[in-house]
Model the fold of this input.
Amino acid sequence: MVFKQKDRTILKTLRNNARTSLTDLSNKHGIPVSTVYERVTRSIPDVVHKFTARLDFAELGFNNRVIMVLSSKLNKRENLLKVLETARETNNLVRLAGGSDFYCEAVFRNMKELEDFLDRIHTMIKSKQVYHVIEDLVIEGFADY
Done:
């Protein structure tokens, strides 16, 4: 789908703050409210999966955020997938190609919780790489649409 400049402008603003009102969008970009409404209700729903809130996990007491790149043991991929999909610690889960099976971002209150989690899945994984997230540098940065 190719977007007109007005659509891109509205989308970029909504990606920065999904709660921006139609009136604020109209005022900020000099687009009539009726046009903003039409774009938001007709064009944008085709590409927006959902509007969501980004949480500060540290403020919620989850001070350990990790990214795990996991390869499953032979015939254990579906079992591992079920565990990762349903684990309360999983924040984001992506299936990979190219040697590893899953990219899993998870949050934990402390290192013990992380180690307990890894113990729960160790019989299903062939290899793992665990990276501790220090800070987010770019989130939802892609803007070439």
Observations:
- The chain has a mean pLDDT of 93.
- The longest helix spans residues 5-16.
- The helical segments are 5-16, 22-29, 33-43, 77-86, 111-121.
- The beta strands are 64-72, 90-95, 102-108, 125-132.
